[in-house]
Specification:
This protein is α/β, with parallel strands linked by helices and 161 residues long. Helices cover 35% and strands 14% of the residues.
Amino acid sequence: DFGGELIRIKLQLDPDNKNEKYAIGFFETGTYLEPDVSNIMIRAVRRGDFVVDVGANVGIFTVLMAKLVGTGGLVLAVEPDTYNLSVLRANLRLNGLDNVRIVHQPLWEREEEIYFYACPDCTGSGAVWDVKLWRGNEKTRALNQPPRRFLSTTLDKEIET
């Protein structure tokens, strides 16, 4: 509930994806993803605000914040993972949202070339360190995909744009 207004969100989520299944579990119990985080957003984010979602993932929080800021606001969604980016874009389309600017680069302390490691075991676990080293990432280890090289960006640069 946002000032008496019900916020309706549509999401395309894959129950076979460990990361998305985690989110579905919250929705199936009638709660929002990570209720403590969601409730802070609902209390703090206002119409017309500019907010940033670093590691936007498949866009669950991005969609919520885009609904909260309304047409006069803007969400900057930073997501370097290609799979997550495709689902994020689909979820924005599904909700008819055009108040989100997507940055398909890792956010870093300075602009430089860095490596981003995708994590097929859990698409919410991509990182700038080798995720094959994490004990539970057997699929990631078996696939042994090389990291993707990116030119990182900074929050200051993206805010100026």
